[in-house]
Design goal:
This protein is α/β, with parallel strands linked by helices and 288 residues long. It has helices at 25-30, 51-63, 83-95, 124-141, 163-174, 182-192, 196-201, 234-247, 263-283; strands at residues 16-19, 38-41, 66-69, 101-104, 107-110, 112-118, 145-148, 177-181, 208-214, 217-220, 223-225, 252-255. α1 links the parallel β1 and β2. α4 crosses α5.
């Protein structure tokens, strides 16, 4: 069955979103319209809820467009692709008219979940393996899938390709989209000593359809932990501007997973994000 391309209920180009966290639900339901343009959620946390939690979620879904960023598909994992999960996920996406679904270009399971996102070996064999799984997921979901460049701390022991070469090869063979995580580019550039700007502009701009920006923890001069638990730092904001110059002002999420401040503080960062988007549109109107 062919994939659908209905974009009637997905963020428009250049909008600013926030991750759905239970601590923020009351504030999100009470917030004035258009302070936040869309919400991102991990479908595993919301697919089969019931009772009052489901009613509150439905109220949010009526108010905000939704995007899904998965946690457990394990695209590079050795275990068979979980097609039962994908069918349940498709029903959830259909129910809430969610068109944009993304996953990590990594793996998190073998014979059970490993509770971490682990790097895939950068090999030609892995490119073919992962691309086949992405294509099958897209067939089941009847939607394009975007894969996110992952942060990691130890490279897989066997690597024939660079990280950038591996990402580009997977995108081409799977014919899928790229969910560009700007903070992950910055984190890996520090941890592995490469130029973040050069890495960024080598990615295929035409495949980028969604962006993340986040804070992190600087453990030492050459080690950053991708925590999503702090404010975005200036070099990452600058790299976001470079990303917009490269691939256009795409829907962008401010990612915050813990140490979550009150909504007004998060809205200050959303304001910074919107300013960067607007500045890029003024400089590159054709990218807007």
């Amino acid at each position: 069955m062919p994939m659908r391309h209905d974009t009637s209920h997905r963020p428009e180009t250049g909008l600013a979103g926030l991750g759905l966290r239970r601590e923020l639900i009351d504030e999100l339901l009470a917030a004035p319209a258009r302070q936040i343009d869309f919400l991102e959620l991990a479908p595993e946390n919301w697919m089969e809820i019931g009772g009052s939690s489901r009613r509150r979620f439905q109220a949010l879904a009526e108010r905000y467009p939704l995007v899904c960023h998965g946690l457990s598909l394990s695209l590079g994992g050795p275990a068979p692709l979980d097609e039962d999960f994908l069918l349940r996920l498709k029903a959830f996406l259909d129910e809430y008219r969610i068109e944009l679904y993304t996953e990590h270009l990594s793996y998190c399971s073998d014979d059970g979940h490993l509770y971490d996102l682990l790097p895939i070996p950068f090999t030609a064999e892995a490119v073919t393996y992962v691309a086949q799984r992405i294509r099958r997921a897209q067939e089941i979901l009847e939607r394009p899938l975007a894969v996110e460049n992952a942060s990691f701390y130890v490279q897989a022991p066997i690597s024939e390709l660079s990280e950038g070469e591996f990402i580009r090869a997977v995108l081409d063979e799977a014919d899928c989209q790229l969910h560009l995580d700007v903070n992950n580019v910055y984190v890996n550039s520090v941890n592995f000593g490469y130029d973040a700007s050069a890495f960024l502009v080598a990615l295929p701009a035409e495949r980028v359809n969604y962006i993340h920006v986040a804070g992190h923890y600087q453990q030492s001069a050459d080690l950053i932990i991708d925590t999503h638990g702090a404010d975005v730092i200036d070099p990452v904001w600058a790299l976001l501007g470079e990303a917009y110059a490269h691939c256009g002002v795409q829907p962008t999420l401010l990612e915050r997973d813990f140490n979550i401040p009150p909504l007004p503080q998060l809205l200050l960062e959303i304001g910074q994000l919107r300013t960067i988007q607007q500045n890029c549109k003024q400089v590159n109107p054709c990218h807007g």
